[in-house]
Every structure is written in structure tokens, then in C-alpha cells.
Amino acid sequence: MLALGLGLSLVTASACGGSSSAGEGDGGSDDASSVVIALPEEPVSLDPCDASYTENNRVLTDNVTEALMRRDAETGELIPALATEWTQVDARTYDFTLRDGVEFSDGTPLDAEAVAVAVNRSFKPEHECGVKGFIFNDEDLQATAVDDLTVRIQATQDDPILPLRISFIEIGLTDENAKTDSPIGTGPYVLDDWQRRTSITLERNPNYWGDEPSIERVQYVFRAESSVRANLVRTGDADLAISLAPQDTGDGTGVQTFELAETLFLRIDTFAEPLNDLDVRKAINLAIDREGLVQGVMQDQGTPASQIIVQNIGGYDPDIEVWPYDPEQAESLVQGAADRGVDVSKEITLYTRAGFYANSDQVMEGVAEMLRQIGLNVTIQQLDAAAWLDDVLRQPKNPDRVGLTENVHGNNTGDAVFTVVTKYSSTGDESTLDDAELDSMINAAAAATGDERAELFREVMSYITTDIVAMVPIAHLGGSLITSDRLDYTPNLQSADILRIADMSVG
To answer: Less packed terminus of the chain by CB within 10 Å, N or C?
Structure first.
């Protein structure tokens, strides 16, 4: 297998990375009430309406800001948070009863008017809020205060899972007409300081309505290299590091592994040659040695993927098989496309993201080489998180771009709608498709409930994956983290995205 041999050599090379100290030496872990957390990426934004992006979510969600409801990490069940109960008014409207006595961290009372502002600003087009694009797409909300502690939220269309969607809206005390990087929330922590490209510091919120967390201060530092993050913990300069590469787990001391609801895949630009050709898209899938990548480069920290969602999500289709590794057939399909006049020599850019997941650079180098070996002209362009997000992901329908975009999709919501609308509908913020039949299938599935909903989304997933071959699923990812001896934390399915400081303690 090509990838296995390539991966082992690349892993050996990357394991020689150096180390660094956290936050220019002030790790904070000498203080019994403080912790330091090493993250692979700095947030692009600290606006509450952008918390659906992983790098922002890790700092904000359930730490600085909170939603009306929380999602149980294992079951996906909605749990009261800022709202104590919610009542359906009609097929597109719910009333939420707010928790009495809650204050924002600056002492401002939480009331229905503040919640309405927080909800409504998330849907202003000029803000380009992440929660709008990822969770709601072409659906909008309008929130109004019924009384001081009752807020009515109405969608622009019937929505059988509206409360689940609303649970992704983080509530902050913010200007409705402007975005912010100084969020004021109701969570157990407040933003104390953001030193760009260096650290973010949170302090315990003295006005928090819930149980006081045991940790008083948390500092986040940002290191792209997995080995550096792991070494920060081993040298006592950090207490927690996430997204470790397998080769950086050492002898396993302090390391915990856990399942993720995340899938590594390539988005395909479908408008220009040669990627607008179905046989070329099939060839790309056949060229990828998924088993070799998982075993070699990822060292079994994942499983080969047949589709973009995982099996505990409604809409996962167990009948879709992982693409076989067949480079000979792939090469034949590319040659056949060339014989039909498709310009297969045209340069294809593989857009990658620095430090995206464990060994991401090596995985993408392996993928690019596999595609070259079947006759495609592939180059790699590595981007930082902001450029990847703004210049590529959020501009999916560039008719002149010939690209494959490295992406990791996490869906632990329990419903495929959060995947397929954004990534594959004609109006999706990240979609490179204009397919009327697929749009009709997605709309029918989104309007259904129960078993019918799951079955219709299975048909959608099969159509995307095997009929039009709109993407390249590679692997369902596993995760690992390392903690210091003094930090007690048990990861869960949400830990790659949500790191609740209140779930941690120092002993």
C-alpha cells in the first residue's frame, strides 16, 4: 500500500519537532487555582455568533457564553441552561422561559429583550455569523420579548428540530449592529485578556448564576505542532493539550483517547475541468488508500470513512461502502476522461489548513502523491485558519477555481440536516453544488420526522456519495489529549469542540 510506506517515513520525520515554552514563561500552572491549555489554533473570532467554528467554540461555549439549552455530550438530549423550559406555539414558533436571576458578567440582568437582540443579530447578513451559515443556512429567525422572562422565537419556515438548532446560538450582551471580540456572556468565566497570536486568558465570573467552578483562571496558548503542545504538558508549562499526533503520546502517561464525531474529507470544486467530470471524481476516490493512511500516517487514530457523518447520526447509511483502493482503475478513468476531451492536465490545487488535526500535513502530502500517480496535476497550498475559512471555504462557488479543499466536519447533533444543507444544497454556505434534484431530496428530508426523516437522509447521503460523488470521504477521526498530574478531566464526544472548564478540577 502506497500510503502506509509513505506515512511511516513522514511520521518519523515529524517526530523530531522541537519544544517551546507557554506564554513566554508564565504558564500559570504553578498556581493551584489556574490552568494552562495548549490549543492547535487561535480563535478567528470571539463573537458569540461565530462560536459554531471549532477554534472559537473551544474558548467561548459554556465558558464565556451560554445558550438557552445545552446538548448532552453522549445522548444529544437538550438540557435547560439559560432557558428553564420551552413550549411549541406552532410548527415554526417556540416560547422560551428564561431562568430568573441570571446576570451577564458586567451585572446587566439577562432578560427577554437581551436574548432577542442576541438571536436577531446572528441573522444579519452583514455579520456573516458562523451559526447562521452552519446551523440555519437559508432559514432565518426572528426573536421578540413577550415579557421580561419570555422570549418568542419564530423561524421563516416549518422546522421539526427548531429547539435543537436554537441550542447552538450563544447568548452574549452585544451590539445588534456590530460584531465584537470582547464578548460579555453569562458563563462561569469572563474574558480577561487576548494577546493576539500568543494567548487568551479567562477569569472566573463572580456574577455566575450556577455552581462556582473550582478553577479560577485559565490561559489558552496556541501551538500548531502536536509535539510542542505535548511537551508543554510534560515540562509543566501547560496542564492540558488536545489534538495530539499518535507519535507524540510518548509512553501514554497522562494521555486519554476518545471517540470523535468528526470526519476528514475533501470538498470538490465541481464547476471547472477536470473536477466537473464524474469519472474524474470517481478516480480521485479510488486513488485514496484510506486504510494505509489510517494505519501508517494516522497510526490507527481513526477508521476509513464511507460518508461524511458517523453512525450515531440520523441519516447515516450503513449500506454505503468505503471506496476500494484501486489505483489502476482510477488511472484508467482519468485516461478515459482525457480521451473524451477533458483537460486532466489542468492544475488542481489541494487547499490544506495548517495544524488541522494530528498529522494533517503528512496525510495531505500522501493524498496529493496518490492523485499524482493516477495522472492528475495536484499541488498543495497550505493556508492558516483565517485564509482557509474566508478565502476558500466561504467562497465555494468560484467558477474558475479548480480545487480540492481539506475539511474536517464534526456533527454530534444527532441529525444529518446540519451536514447536508450547509455543505451540499444549492444555497449552502460551503456547497460547491447546484443540483435541483438534491435540493428537493434535502427539503423533503428536512421536513420529515422520526424514521421517515432518517430514511430520507440516508437516501440523500447515498446520492451525494455514490451517485454524484460530490466529495472524498477519508477517515472518521479519533482524538487524544494529555493532562498534567494535577488536572482532572475526562473527555467526551464533544471534547474536540467544547472544552468546558467547569468540568475540570485541579488536585
So the answer is: C
Longest C-alpha distance within the chain, in Å? 71
Residue 264 pairs with which residues in a beta bridge? Answer: 408, 475
Q: Within 13 Å, how many C-alpha atoms sit on residue 51's CB side?
A: 27
Q: Please give the helix or strand (H or E) that residue 391 lies within, else none.
A: none
Which domains, and CATH codes, for the chain? 2-8+259-478 (3.10.105.10), 48-184 (3.90.76.10)
Write down the residue that cell numbers 495548517 correspond to. 354
CA–centroid distance for 3 within its chain: 26
CA 431, 416, 302, 280 torsion-angle sign: negative
Nine-digit cell string for 389: 475559512
What totals of helices (H) and strands (E) does the chain contain, helices first?
A: 14, 19
3-class DSSP state of 132: helix
The band of 432, judged by pLDDT with boundaries at 50, 70 and 90, is very high
- pLDDT per position as a tens digit, 79-117: 999 999 999 999 999 999 999 999 999 999 999 999 999
| Residues facing 78 on adjacent strands | 71
d(CA 267, CA 470): 7
User: Which amino acid is present at 389?
Assistant: L
8 A C-beta contact, residue 386 and residue 44: yes
Residue 43 C-alpha cell reads as: 480563535
Q: What is the pLDDT of residues 207-223, one digit of tens each?
A: 999 999 999 999 999 99
Q: What is the mean pLDDT of residues 458-464?
A: 97
In degrees rounded to 5, what are phi and psi of residue 95?
-105, 135
Cell numbers linked to 295:
494505519
Of 224, 226, 192, 236, residue with least CA distance to 42: 224
Q: Could you give the CA distance from residue 185 to residue 170 in angstroms, rounded to a whole number? A: 9
9-64: per-residue pLDDT in tens? Answer: 333 333 333 333 444 433 444 577 899 999 999 999 999 999 988 899 999 999 99
The dihedral region occupied by 158, where left means phi > 0, alpha psi between -120 and 50, and beta the remainder, is beta
| Closest CA relative to residue 59, chosen from 260, 193, 150 | 193
Count CB neighbours of 340 within 10 A: 10
The percentage of residues in the chain with a pLDDT greater than 70, rounded to a whole number, is 94
Task: Label the pairing between strands 302-304 and 199-204.
Answer: unpaired
